[in-house]
Amino acid sequence: MQAWQVHENGEPGEVMRLAEVEPPVPGDGQVLLRVRAANINFPDALLCRGQYQVRPPLPFTPGVEICGETEDGRRVLATAALPHGGFAEYALADARALLPAPGSLDDAEAAALHIGYQTGWFGLHRRARLAAGETLLVHAAAGGVGSAAVQLGKAAGATVIGVVGGADKAAVARDLGCDVVVDRHAEDVVAAVKEATGGRGADVIYDPVGGAAYAQSAKLVAFEGRIVVVGFASGTIPSPALNHALVKNYAILGLHWGLYNTRNPELILRCHEELTELAAHGTIKPLVSERVPLSAAAHAVQRVADGITTGRVAVVLEKGAVA
User: What pTM was estimated for this model as a whole?
Assistant: First the structure.
């Protein structure tokens, strides 16, 4: 089979190599899946760089999020079991963690419904307890993680403010349903959000960026607000001033979605059922901006790493283009 492999850490476009290898052999509790589509996530770039919290042995195949097909023909969503990731014709996954792929979505959309939307649902509902009528601010609102949070925030009845970088991404955020869009390249984010909220700020701030975005969040979080820390796409991990959280009376909430797979897997299934229902009604629909063939995966991962894409970029295998 064909598979992209990383033999040394570095930039995805430089270290990912397409090779002909033997299909992986499932271990205890694992299942072999034919990959129909593999969604590209920022952690795939971090894996290539050796900067992710999980460091699979070299060589490994990246691609953590897939829509695949079981040997008996079931179409499923899975988090790939590294080192045998999804940028290949076949991948391994935990048999107990397979989720049915929603029939309302094609393969690329279904793959994109998994990690980003699960993270958004847990972040907004389980951690931040977002309520209808509250204001949600989403950093990187036109990206894969941010776009999911925008749609879920609107579905929950929140007023959504999207922060983006550039006019093209601002247009995407508006199309996603953001009530207010702030272009950080052209506007002062803090001033614009304060003006939009009458000086109050946001009740919930969803931050997959870190760095300067987190500093803005601390200035913009409302009384009894909640900042949900999802990741650090900026490459800079902030050091929060806890005295500021104390005097301003807000909460800083961390979210590592993967922990629920081992600590409370029942919640993963319940979340998936809710997401499937929302997708069936058209309330949410993953923004897949590009579908690329397996041969173009390395270049696509590099573009995601460089922050120049919108929504999700999916690697779609020829035989698995649609449901």
Answer: 0.92
